[in-house]
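Ops channel
N.P.: pipeline sanity check, posting one input/output pair.
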């Protein structure tokens, strides 16, 4: 996977990644949920070796709301590693660095998202996001 496809679509997908990161940092559930398609799917680790998967925007938002309790004051940074646009679909790989504070001090989690994005009504949205931590330590249970 590399960077290919129309530049305006790749830029719009980069802006989607940025909007997602901004909404996480501001803890703005409404803005965050709008980055997803209605039939989206989100998979994240639960901190105990299992994967949690939510399907549909409402279920995804409920999982995110619960997950955000583990990350007080998070600063979420994200950047694309690859964007391949094919018509109204795109395969995307992005990386994250999440820093947050808690009782144990400051924690940083680095990770990778493997995404499928779709263009609906002129806007790019996430249809599927699969998160894999890249840090040596992933703290927290959901």
């Amino acid at each position: 996977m590399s960077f290919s496809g129309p530049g305006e679509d790749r830029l719009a997908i980069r802006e989607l990644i940025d909007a997602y990161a901004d909404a996480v940092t501001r803890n703005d559930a409404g803005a965050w949920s709008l980055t997803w398609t209605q039939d989206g799917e989100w998979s994240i680790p639960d901190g105990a070796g299992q994967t949690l998967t939510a399907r549909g925007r409402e279920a995804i938002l409920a999982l995110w709301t619960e997950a955000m309790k583990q990350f007080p004051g998070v600063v979420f940074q994200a950047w694309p590693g690859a964007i391949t646009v094919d018509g109204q679909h795109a395969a995307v790989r992005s990386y994250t660095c999440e820093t947050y504070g808690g009782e144990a001090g400051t924690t940083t989690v680095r990770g990778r998202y493997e995404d499928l994005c779709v263009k609906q009504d002129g806007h790019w949205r996430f249809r599927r996001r699969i998160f894999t931590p890249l840090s040596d330590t992933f703290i927290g249970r959901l």
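N.P.: looks fine end to end. The domain at 3-132 is CATH 3.10.450.50 (Nuclear Transport Factor 2; Chain: A,).
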